[in-house]
Each structure stands twice: as C-alpha cells, then as structure tokens.
Amino acid sequence: MRYSLLSLFVLLFICAxxxxxxxxxxxxxxxxxxxxxxxxxxxxxxxxxxxxxxxxPNVKNQWxxxxxxxxxxxxxxxxxxPIIRFDTSQLTQKLMVKNGExxxxxxxxxxxxLTNDAELERLKLxxxxxxxxxxxxxxxxxxxxxxxxxxxxNQLALEHEIAKNEARRLDRSLDKTIESNRINIAIEENNVSxxxxxxxxxxxxxxxxxxxxxxxxxxxxxxxxxxxxxxxxDSVWMGRQLLGLPSLDSMIVKAEILEADAGxxxxxxxxxxxxxxxxxxxxxxxxxxLGQIFxxxxxxxxxxxxxxxxxxxxxxxxxxxxxxxxxxKISLTKPSVEKVxxxxxxxxxxxASTATTSKKDxxx
Length: 364
Hints:
- There is one protein chain.
- This protein is α+β, with helices and mostly antiparallel strands.
- It has 6 helices and 17 strands.
- Strand 15 (278-296) and strand 16 (304-312) form a beta hairpin.
- Helix 2 runs antiparallel to helix 3.
C-alpha cells in the first residue's frame, strides 16, 4: 500500500511538471511533442475592394451643401436612381435673379438693334439728300460757265463745294455709326451670352444636387475623422465622402497589426478569418497589401499599429457586410520542403513512379 501511494505521488508530480499545450501550438510529428506555432493575431474590419464613393457635387461657387434626402443605411440602392439630394434653395434664388438680368439684357439688345437701325436709316436719308443737293449745285455751277457773271459763277461754285463737303461728312458719319453700332451690338450680345452661360451653369448645378447611384449595391454611411455619420439636415463641405456602394463579391479585411508584430508579416502569408457575426465559420485569405507607415490607432488609443489588407479568397456575399468585425490569425510558418513537394506532386504520382523504378530494378 505504501509503495502504491508513493508511485501515485511520483506520477502526479511528473504530470504536473509537463508544459500545458497552448491553443496556438502544433504537434511535432518527429517526437510527438507540441511546439509553438508561428502565428500573429490581429483584429480588422470588413471592407470592399471595389466601392463607389458618393461625395457632394462640384457646383460653381458652392462650398457647403445641406442634405435633404438620404436612403437608410444598409438599404439596397438601384443604379441610376436618386441616392442623395441636397438643398437647392440658394441656387433657385440665384437662378431667379440671373433670369431677370438675362431678360433685361435681352431687351436692351433688342432696343439697341432697333435704335441703331433707325439711326442708320436717318443717316442714309440725310446722305441721299446731301448727294442730291451736291448734284443739283454741280449742275447749276456747270451751266453757269460762260453765261453768268463771274460773281454768280463763283457763288454757284462755292455752293457746290459746300454741298460736296456735306455729302462727304455724312458719308463718313454713316461709316462711323455703322462701326459704333457693330461694337455696341457685340457688347450687348456678349452680356446676353455671359448671363445665358451663368443661367445654364446654375440650372446644371440644380440638376447635379440630386445624385444618382452609379451602380446597384448596399448603402454604407461614411464617417468623418471623428467617427460621425451624416444624416438628413446636416451641412457638409465639398470633398467629404458621404456614402459608399461596395461590391460584396470583392471583400477584404482592413487589418490593424501591432507594432511588435509588423516585422513578421509579409505579403502572401495565409490568414484564417473569423467574423464576430459568425464565429462558427472560418474563412481563408492571404495578406495582399501592406501599409507604408505606422500610426496611432486613435486619439483615445495611443497604441502604434500597422495597416494591412487581407484578401478573402471565397467571400460570402450573403453574410458579409462592410464594417463587420473580424479576428485574424496570420500564419508565419514557412512550409517544409516535403510539404511543398507533396502539394506540387500528388502522392499517387510519387508512389507510381517508385513502383515503376523498383520493377525495372528487379528485371535487371
């Protein structure tokens, strides 16, 4: 009995001294012991590698936009259907003002043309009358040569010269008036064209304040640098990303790797992915993109992290949605030569080749 108790005590002592198997350890096939696996654990968030981003439109002299319509987040957007609308009251008011200015300038142009035409007709009549007077004075002066006294002849010659100078003056005045009218008409036409362009720009801007979905997809609200999402009634600045339409068949994981583990991760490494929304399923992927810089995780969490992207080889478009939390296990273990050969050449081929060689040796 004493020896049995002693043996039991020694057995318990030996078992207590054995190391506890780690969940990330693997079994060594050579000596049947467990060794630590090369794994880096990280967290991440699902995203789409192909996402159409919706931002405020580029409208001239418009820097701030007030949202009047948004579809619910997670709803299905249909291509070429409205996905977001902005307030157009300011643009509508501008359009009314510009339309009023345009009508005024169009009326001014019309009046200028009528006035110019009337002025030209008056000058043409005066010129025609002056030419008639010039011809009349010339005939009188020409008939008086040798018939009238020198005094009367000189008087008729003077009247002819005066009539001729008046006709020249009116002819030059007509040319100047035609050129002046041409310039005035060009100025007024330019004013009308400029205002018409401004009206067209405002009308185009009003149309662009309703954005159509460039593709069908799930509506995802984008967050700003403080993590805030937009809502109806918000005023946003030009250039801000408001909505996203991701393609669910091209999903990735935006991973955040701790600074201490960043040097172990490289492109092409295999990754096991578990979603918090479906912990019973394990998805496979690989490291496809590595970030270029280290950064702080957030203002509240000063941990230094390194960004990476994990491509999911077989995404589930029915389950996966952008923004889902994911837990990652990045495999750092390099495959052995035997494993590479086994994966590259099927074992059946190796056995068949070995059997053929042995048979030839026996025949020899």
